Amino acid sequence: MVSEQKPFRVIDTGIRDGRAQIAFDQALIDLHKDGEVPDTIRFLQFPPTALIGRHQALSQELKLDYCHDNNIRTVRRITGGGALYFDEGQLGWELLFHRATFAGKSLGDLACMICEAAASGLQKLGVDARYRAPNDIEVEGRKISGGGGFFDGNTLFYQGTVLVDMDPADMIATLNIPDPALVKQFTEAAAQRIVTLKDCLGKAPDMAVIKQALMDGFGESLGIDPVAGNISDREEAEAKRLFDEEIGADEFVAEIDNPANATGILTGNHAGPGGRVAAHIRLEGANQDRFREILIAGDFFVAPPRIVLDLEAALRGTLTHDTRKTVLEFFAKTNVGLMTAAPEDFATAIENALETVA
What we know:
With 358 residues, this protein is α+β, with helices and mostly antiparallel strands. It contains 13 helices and 14 strands. The longest helix has 17 residues, at 107-123.
């Protein structure tokens, strides 16, 4: 905890277009790094929205025709992780603060602290919420909240969601499950794995009550002082710029889109404790023993997310028989906080792709 209660500004961006909410995330991070916004707690909600992780392939993860026909917005997050469905029945919460606020804490330690604080807030509503590593909050073994985050320089961005009222069938309908026969199985599994506040309490609490409970949990457990604040014109302007120039564009959302179907692409997968890593590669050279292009996808968390782009760049032009050495040396020399996947997971996925060479 901090030695003295430090004020955290509390803002609420309400229900906004999903891509606009993500653009606001990036604006907050950039402006906080520049010292233009204070440590902040933010609440947010989405209209019906299907979100994929920063490194996921769009059409492999989402049922795009269904989303289009049902007016469900498709969005690419700036954080890793898997595909998610959000609507007005879920409450998003975020913490943004300087590394020095909790000096000496690792990303994993901070994730534990934040999730335990959120769980203590939910307990105030009358539910037996408990933290489960690495970043879930459960009630009697069923997930009611999950989160993830990363460091960008000295700024930590950590976000989570509380399931207030949701039908798992709505979530499953947006996900691209290859075998239609498995849809019923996935729906039943989701219903058993997740739980909402409405399920626990018999009715959904008012959103204002939930927000206050979370603020109390953060304040008491983290030793901070949540104080109602205002969204600045600078934040809105920067969020709009990011939306217009990148995050709101269809090209950004479809930046990774079913790469396995491209001509000449070799694909390998590796599923580890930290999530799935997929490597899509194209080779060059007389002996096809050198990386020409490489794209890494999956539902892992890596901090900061751009590290994956740097790894791809580091591999281009290198010899395939040096794959594991190149990957491990890259991570050894790079300031990166791997929240779930390990360097070996990336190396194994790439090696698995190489094994598909005829």
